[in-house]
TrEMBL record:
This is Tetratricopeptide repeat protein. Pfam families: TPR_6. The chain crosses the membrane at residues 35-58. It comes from the Bacteria. InterPro entries: TPR-like_helical_dom_sf (IPR011990), TPR_rpt (IPR019734). The keyword Glycosyltransferase does not apply. Keywords: Membrane, Transmembrane, Transmembrane helix. It comes from Sunxiuqinia elliptica.
Amino acid sequence: IQETEVMELRAKLGNIIQQVNREEKKKRSFAAKLTTSRVAIASVAASLILLLSISGLISRNTTSSDAELYSQFYQPYQTTGIFRSGDALIDSKLTQALHKYNDQQYDASIDLFSQVLKIDKNNPVSNFYSAMAYQQTGKPELAIEAYQKVIQDKDNLFIEQAQWYIGLCYLQNENRKKAYRQFKSIANSNGFYQEKASAILRKIRYLEE
């Protein structure tokens, strides 16, 4: 083999070695990128799982706290006295409805209160106690509607009670912001439920710290 051929062979070998080195670098670079990508994906997945877990815990804690507050402050309002409207049919159905309510037959009482309200849609006794029955059967939204009718009537003895129970319905419905505003309004008044509203506000603030 001549010297020139040896030089050419060395040059070719050098080129081959350089090409092999470049290929090896590419492979290592790709492997590193792949590993980095896998680590990044795993990190994102772990973060998402952690975030979802924390969100779930917060949600469960909020629900639990609202339910505990509701249980602590809610007491069903008892029927008091005899309510006379001056209409014999209304008085008869109202008496039956109140008996059903006292016997904790809430669905039956709601049906009878509804019959009264078909005759007298603004009847405050029927609106108030049907709201109580809705609340007792886990229907806070319907209860709020009925309580609001009591408040809108303006001329009855159940307005303060309706305002208080609306706040409790918001807690029952896990709407703490509306509950807070409702109880704050009651606490700023000089009504019967002022102290209770102030107490429940303190507990809500504590839960949100």
